[in-house]
């Protein structure tokens, strides 16, 4: 029953739309290593750095917990991308869109700090300031976790087309939003992790940090399989396994219960 309650707590955390980079607030190490997706990373890197001089939007679309934010963050902090784009900014939109919050986040990520005078400006002044800063060079803006076309329509006016190869990288669960924004290009649909990738991620999060007998490793492989290829589920379950330690019965309970939890999550998000 205790394990079922902990798994229920994990499911509640997932329902709060936590990204892989925000799990540290709940005592779980953030996911800073991208497992798999190397080909996808190189493809998107190429799409951002090459091509037309006109401003283009590149979209990553997929269900919650599938790793959109992790991929976008890896691209954003990649040394080649950093050298290619003289100006970089990013903001998370989330389900409840707040234009002012997004504008302030974009401005602070460009300047590296929160400018006090921005707090006293209205939204139009903030948008004007953002436009002027982005006109100073080739820019990459990451708009993470945007949910609606209305949110995109509200923020896109801030991004000038300076005909210098600037790009916007967007992540969303909504295919319609991705297709609307993606400059006529097909959005990239995130895939689920295969078993080898799932096991590699779980192994790194749990087994590298402590010694477990081979019996635990076999249970770990079953858990990796039952997580359904969702990186967020694997990271959260890894935190639970690390917490319960060398209790074989509790690991078996996780094996028994985790599959139904993930299946429910996938079914809900696919409706």
TrEMBL record:
Give one GO term, molecular function aspect: ATP binding
Record-linked SUPFAM superfamilies: P-loop containing nucleoside triphosphate hydrolases
Q: Name any Gene Ontology BP term.
A: defense response
Residues of the NB-ARC domain: 38-209
Query: Which Pfam families does the UniProt record give?
Result: NB-ARC
The entry assigns this protein to a family as follows: Belongs to the disease resistance NB-LRR family.
* Stated name of the protein: NBS-coding resistance gene analog
Q: Which organism is it from?
A: Nicotiana tabacum
Q: Which gene encodes it?
A: NBS226-11
């Amino acid at each position: 029953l205790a394990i079922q309650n902990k798994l229920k707590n994990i499911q509640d955390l997932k329902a709060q739309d936590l990204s892989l980079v925000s799990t540290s607030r709940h005592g779980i190490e953030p996911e800073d290593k991208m497992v798999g997706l190397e080909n996808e990373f190189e493809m998107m890197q190429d799409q951002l750095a090459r091509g037309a001089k006109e401003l283009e939007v590149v979209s990553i679309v997929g269900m919650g917990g599938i790793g959109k934010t992790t991929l976008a963050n890896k691209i954003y902090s990649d040394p080649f991308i950093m050298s290619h784009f003289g100006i970089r900014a990013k903001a998370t939109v989330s389900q409840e869109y707040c234009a002012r919050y997004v504008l302030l986040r974009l401005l602070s990520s460009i300047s590296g700090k929160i400018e006090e005078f921005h707090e006293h400006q209205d939204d139009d002044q903030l948008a004007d300031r953002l436009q002027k800063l982005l006109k100073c060079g080739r820019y990459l803006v990451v708009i993470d976790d945007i949910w609606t076309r209305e949110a995109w329509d509200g923020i896109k006016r801030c991004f000038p087309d300076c005909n210098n190869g600037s790009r916007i990288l967007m992540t969303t669960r909504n295919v319609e939003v991705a297709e609307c924004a993606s400059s006529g290009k097909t959005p990239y649909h995130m895939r689920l992790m295969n078993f080898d990738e799932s096991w590699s991620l779980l192994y790194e999060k749990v087994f590298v940090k402590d010694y477990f007998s081979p019996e635990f490793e076999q249970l770990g492989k079953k858990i990796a399989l039952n997580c359904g290829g969702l990186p967020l589920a694997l990271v959260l379950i890894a935190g639970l396994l690390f917490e319960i330690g060398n209790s074989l019965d509790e690991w078996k309970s996780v094996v028994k219960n985790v599959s139904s939890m993930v299946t429910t999550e996938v079914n809900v998000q696919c409706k």
